[in-house]
Amino acid sequence: MTRHPAFGLALATFGALVLTPDAMFLRLSGMAGPQMLGWRGVFMGTALLLIWLAVSRRRRADLTCLGSGAGIAIVGCQFFNSTFFALGIGGAPVAIVLFGVATTPIFAALFARMLLGERTARATWATIAAVSVGIGIAVLGGGNVVAPTSDVIFGAAAGLGVAAMLALNFVVLRAHPYLPIPLLIGLGALCAGVAGTTVTGLAHMPEGNVWAIAITGCIILPASFLSLSFASRHTAASNVSLLLLLETVLGPVWVWLVAGEAMTPSMLLGGGIVVGSIALYLMHARQSARRERNRSRAEQQS
Strand (E) positions, 151-216? Predict the structure, then answer.
C-alpha cells in the first residue's frame, strides 16, 4: 500500500516524542549503568519478542533473517547502542554523552550516502547544522565546559558510538524493508540485557526502583523504537535521526517537571533553536510533498 509522503515523518515524530520521558524514568530508577542496561534490555527485549510472536505470520522466514548480514547488523546495532548509552551515562558527564548522540543525523546522512547512494537534501543539511548549534548551546553553553579528562573522552566516545549505531540501524532497515524489526531489535536488546545482568550480578539487580525501568522498558522503548524503525522505511534515515533529537532536548524538561532539576537559560535557548528548526523543517517537508503531489497529478492529467 502506498503511504502518504508525510507518513514517515509523522511516525518518526511520534516515536521521538514517546521517547522523551525515558531520561526521567532512568533518573527515578536510581540505578547504575550496567544494572540499568540489564533491566532495560530484558524488559524491552521480552516485550518486542512477545509482539513478534503475536503479530508475525511468517515466523520461519523471519528466523532465517537472523543468519543474514543485514539481520546480524540490526541485532548488533541494538546491542551496542544500548550498551554504549548505559555505560556512557553511568560513567561520564551526561552533557558530553548527549552531545555525541546529537551527531546521529550526520552519521545517518553519511551512511545513507555510502551504502545506499541516497543524497541528502540541502534543507536537511541546513537543519542538521542549526540543530547541532542548538544542542551545543543547550549542553555546553552554560559556562561549565568540562576539561578533557578520561571520563569526558569516554563519554564522548560512547555518545558517538550510540549515534553511529542508531544511524546504521535506520539505514540498514531502509535498505532491507522486509526485515522483522521486532524480532531483530528485541533480540539485540535482550542480549544487552543479559550482558548488563551478568556484570551487575543477580543479587544486586533488585536494588533501586525497578518499576521505573519497567515502564520505560516495557512501554516507552518498544513503542518508540518500533515507530522510529518503521519510519526509516518511509523516509530518509537522516530525517528519522533528525527528529530523534527531540528527545535530547525535551528529555530534560520531563526531568525538570518531575525531579525539579532547573533548566538553565542556555538549555532553554538551545532547546528553542532545536525545536524551532525541526518545526520549520517539517513545514518545509510538508510543502515539498504537497508540490510533488500536485506536479504528479498535473502530469497524469496532461
Answer: none
